[in-house]
């Protein structure tokens, strides 16, 4: 599973994605109340998984620690 969904998102980016996703989903209930707010499920899902499929396709990462894990596991 690590090859399919490698960790490639920095912890701070995960927090940002979570907040962005939560905000967009809240638009379904408050604000314009349209289904477009459901697009917030994408950043929310990537925040929980810690992997961005687009980053994987492009070979990018914002998490250097995830890219080169230490042998001690910490």
Describe this entry's structure for a reader.
The chain is an all-alpha fold. About 50% of the residues lie in helices and about 0% in strands. It contains four helices and no strands. The protein has helices spanning about 10-30, 40-50, 55-60, 65. The radius of gyration is 15 Å and the shape is elongated. The mean pLDDT is about 85.
Element layout with pairings:
Layout: H1 11-29, H2 41-49, H3 53-58, H4 64-67
Summarize the model shown.
By secondary structure, the chain is mostly helical. 51% of the residues lie in helices and 0% in strands.
Features:
51% helix, 74 residues, mainly alpha, 4 helices
DSSP summary, beta strand count = 0
- Percentage of residues in helical conformation: 40-55%
Structural class by helix and strand composition: mainly alpha
The main pleated sheet reads as: none
What is the end-to-end distance? 20 Å
Shape category: elongated
Count of individual helical segments: 4
As residue ranges, the low-confidence spans are none
Task: Give the amount of beta strand, in percent.
Answer: under 5%
Q: What average pLDDT do the residues reach?
A: 87
**Topology as H/E string?**
HHHH
Radius of gyration over alpha carbons?
15 Å
